[in-house]
Amino acid sequence: MDWIHSLSKLRSKDVETAGGKGANLGELMSAGLPVPNGFVVTTAAYEVFMASLKSKNDLLQFPIPRALATAIENAHHQLHNAPVAVRSSATAEDQPDTSFAGQHDTCLNVQNNLLDAIKTCWLSRSTERAIAYRQQHGIANSRMAVVVQTMVPDVLASGVLFTSAVSCREQDDMLVNAAWGLGQAVVDGKVTPDAIRVDKQSLEIVQRETAIKTVMTVLDDNTTRQEAVPKEQQDKPVLTDELVKVLAKLGQQVEDHYTGTPMDVE
Prior knowledge:
By secondary structure, the chain is of the alpha+beta class. The chain is built from 7 helices and 12 strands.
């Protein structure tokens, strides 16, 4: 039963099993980069669930087959039943020409309803926006895996680092976007993040644009919620110069590991 794989056992070649996100997270973990621990519910598990359905209506109401559900619960138990992020990982996702950014679902701070969160990710493959994205990019088929990772505790800020930003000087700069709280408010378009350009060679900051950040996503009981950023914090930079340099060094390690291929890292 090829249903569950530990992230630590996965590599970039395992896209058909773990999807693009799962395979690349396993690859980064193998390179010694700080990736939260977790596991992947594989594409084979997705196919078992879909084959068990007797109707295509109200799919969230159908239970996951008991043997598969037990395997998932046992894997979560290995993480001490910690709160987790449950993230879609399609086989065509996180590829050079098809990122699928925002097309599939993610559930954060999942504690008591892991099986439902996994079903939510599986079924996001069939949403109108995901189907339209596949058609737009000429993708005939994309199988779905799900990444389950422990939540980073006490999150103050989040963002994305682009190791070569196309908007920068001939890709000589990195670009760091950062906002208060979890990243969902940025993904949902409810807040504009800070933007920091970093020289790729010296790792010196060459430009800062500090946004007014009025909303942030924070942890709540078994879920997340959005709340106002304290007024005195709204116009403050999210990241110090020292933290930007730490992130830039990690970005260098990621790009070097992928033999100079530009990457974006959450």
